[in-house]
Every structure is written in structure tokens, then in C-alpha cells.
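$ fold --in a.seq
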Amino acid sequence: MALVLTPLLGIPLVEAGDDLTAFLRDAVLRTGVQPVTGDIFVLAQKIVSKAEGRLVNLSQVLPSQEARDLALRSEKDPRFVELVLRESNLVLRTRPGTIIVEHKLGFVCANAGIDHSNVQGSDGAPEDWVLLLPEDPDRSADLLRHKLEDIYQAVLGVAIIDSHGRAWRNGITGTTIGLSGVPGLVDMRGKPDLFGYKLRITQIAVADELAAAASLMMGQADEGLPAIHVRGFPYPLRESSSGELLRPKEQDMFR
């Protein structure tokens, strides 16, 4: 068994309204892979957000008093903080430079996933442009998946990933925020280990493992490789959603 991850080459800088399916189709031809049943497309969140018009200029944002107060504690631009609040259900932690929130999509992340890296607007001050996460990454993945399945006449999966920190460890890693056709969790409870002992707790976040592997190929800076073709994923594809990966609040020991 081999897991093969191939960066799809030549995807241009994405703008609002661009057809990501067409970009992926052209990149597949350029790269020389032929998608077949069981293959997966992993996409960086940024190209999905850009295509969906989630670029915002801070000069157009009027911060509330709540945003101004939180900006003082976090040492951030009040306009940026206003966007963080709009994209969040709840602020969980704050320190200079970072605001930890429960995003409207249900997961916990820093700064509501709003980012400036690899983001550029059409006018105004470059530092004023930021990018929000897709409004519904599962829906975005589902639309892309069905279009790609029509093109290649194959059963495929699509994952949309972002870079998130983790409560227990330093550094960021690829994390899945949108899924279609790819299992989020694989439940191993009741399966025997090498010595016949039945597993009692083990559930594998296979979508996040895939996201971390794809993130290695994408890079974090100027690599320009926002889409990865995956072959050899060691679990059956099935209908899914990113909600599988969200820990219930009552089980979250870090709240």
C-alpha cells in the first residue's frame, strides 16, 4: 500500500468568481495525473475563500465598542477584531497577538481563521486586505466534488484544509475544515490489536491526518501549490462532513 500525494501544477492566483473546477481540470492535465475512483482532491482554504469572494478590506469595517475593548487586550487592529467577532460564536481566550474563538463553523481556532498571508486586493493599502474562511466549507467541498466526478466519471473525495494550532503542542498543522466523500473519523473501537486486545477508545481523525500530509506538499509561504491530488488513501470513501471532527463542548477539557 502506498499513499501518493501529487501537487497540481500551474494553478493561477485565484480571484472572486473564478471557476476552481476549471483550474483543477487544467492543472490535472498539466501535471499528468488521471483521477480514478478512490482519489481525493485536497484544496487549501485560501483558494476556495478567494473564489467565493471572502476578501475584505479593513478600511470598510467599522469596529464596535466590544471590538475596540478586545483590541486593547489583544493588541490588534480594532477593525480586524471586529471581523473576528462577526465570524465567531464565542471568544474563549485572549492574549497579546492572539484571540482564540469558537468559530461560527463550530471549531476552535485563532483569530477566527482570518489571515493576511498570501492575500492581495485590487487597490488601497496592501496590509488592509484580509481573507475570511468559506461560509460553508462542507458545501464548497460538495459542489467541487460533484463537478469533478462529472468530469472524470469516478467516485472522488474533496477536502478543504487550513492551518491550525493545537492545544497540546507548538506549531501549526494542516487541519480539515470542509469535507465531501472523505471520512472525517474512522472508529476503531472493538477492533483487535496485534495481541487480540479490543480497542476501547481509538477513533482516528483520518481527514486531519490527510490534511497534515497534504499541507507538507503545499507549504506555507510562496510555494504556490494550493491543490494536491491524493491516491492510495487507506480507508473507503463515504459521505461525510467536517462535523465528525468536532469534539462536543462537554468533552472539551480546555474550555
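$ fold --in b.seq
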Amino acid sequence: MADAGQGICFTGLLGQDKAKKLISRTVAAGRLPHAFLFKGPDGVGKQLFARGLAAALNCRDKKIPGACGVCASCRKFRSGNHPDFMVVSPEKGAIKIEQVRQMCQALSYPPYESAIRVVLLEDVHAMRAEAGNSLLKTLEEPPVDNLLILTADSSRDVLPTIASRCQIIPFHALTEEDTARILTEMPGQPDSQTAHLLARLAEGSPGRAGMFLKTNMVGILKEVVAVIADPNLDADRDLGILLQKAEVMADLKENLPPFLGLLKLWLRDQLMYVSQLPERCGSEGLTRGDDSFRRKMQSTKQIFSRLQAVGRAEMELGRNCNRSLVCENLVFNL
């Protein structure tokens, strides 16, 4: 699994070439630090890569880089039952001091069967102050034969005292192509156009795009578009239809803001089409062949008005306005 240009791809993870190179050189030189900090956007593969690295470090087959996937150690990693791999995840949104204390207690003993124990601490930006102080003691006096891998969202702050004691490995948003490719391999397997549309909205985060796929966000968008694209729609006569679509949108709950982002992306593509700009419109298939809708939205002023309506809805949600009322007001302005 070695690649001289991109480093060892421990997990088959797409993208993240810089992270692969840095980790590969460190492993090859035998200079593992006591702690890594994988920092980057949410959903771009930090935790997946950490698991792959843990498997590779303890793989019994030393003739190949990465993990063989078939030795006893690799099989235990794949089943989630490796005794020398620990995961500390936030509980109710935060890593608590009790979790760190339990981890430190485990680190006081040697690895059970491997050369090195790997501990993955997920989302350390969600760590409470007292938990951070407890972890700091371990980072200052790290026990031998243990590797800590911390992950954090690049948009969130990590305690400087913790970050300064780790080797920081940057992770970045993936390309639209890589994100779409990952989506087409997920359960549900969206078509290429849907995958690219979700990839654009997710801004290079396959994890976020997968959440959009799971909530059928594009399907709901198509429902809403089909209604507002109907040139025969009458707001007074079809009040029930509009209210039903508003209810469908409101039921997205915490996923409503990204749905509004997808709606803005679609409107932006309509603007590009009407303006006859030579840029590809990734959501054109939602209204492909519907010339009546093109005529209905022939004015850029009309499209800007709809974009402003979505923008107002986003601001109202940010002010914690009633979600149902926000959606009802929005559909009547589209």
C-alpha cells in the first residue's frame, strides 16, 4: 500500500496527501512522537486515518507498509476488539475528567499483546477544562509504549498547552471529485449528479455529505423545487400544498440550515443559467427539461429575491425563531 508520492495510505482514505506523507516519514524513520494532533474540518477522515495508523503500527506482517488486514492483530482491529486500542469519545458533547482518568489508569500498565498501545481521543476541542488539565499531565510525562492520537475540528480551539505537546498533522477538505466518489460507495449509492451536488454543499467533507445523503436532503429539495417550479401554482388555491412542503422542511430540525444551503446552491445555479454564464450548474437536473420554470424565473431580479428570502430564513433560524413559521414564510416567498 505504499506510494512514494503520497505516502502510506493506511486506510484507503482518499486525499489527505500531506498527512500521509508526514506520517509515513515519521513511521519509516522510527521517530514516533508520544502524541499526534490530527486537526482539520469535521468529516474529512481524521478518525478513520487514526484507526488505520493504529492497525498499521501493530500489524504482525512487517514486510509491508500499512496493515495487512489478515493477521491476528488486524482481524482484531477490524472487529473492534483489539486490547491495545482505546477510543475516548465525547459523552453528551464533552470529554469529561472521569474519562481521562480511566485512560491514564490504563496507560499505567504495559500493552497487553502489542509493541505499542494506541489511544484515540476524538474531538478534543470538546474537552472540559479539568479534563484538559488531567490530560496535560500525561502529555508532559508520557508513559512508554503508548501513542495518543488526538483529533480536533480546525474551526474550534484546542488548549495551547495541549497542542504544543503534540505533533500537529493538518487535514484538509477534500476535492469535490473525491468527496463525490466516496459518496457513490456509501450505502444508498447516489447517482453521480446527486453525489456532486452533495459534495459541493458539504464543502469537501464526506462525513457531512454522508449525513445529507442519510437524511434524503436532495430528495426533499426535489419535492420543494417541483412545487415552486410549477407555473400553475396559486398560493391561495394551493395553500395546503405549500404548508405541507414547509412541514417537510421543518421536520429536518438540526439539518434545516444545511438544507437551506442546498436551496441557495440550487438558486445560484439557476442564476448562472439565466445569466448564460459558462459555469457548470451542478443542480441543473432538478429542473432539466422544464422550460416553463425557466420562463417563470427569467429575471435575475426574481432569483435574487428568492436568494434573499433564503438568507432571511437563515438569519431567523440563527435567532432561534420558530422553525415551522420560518419554513412557512419561506415557501410563500419562493
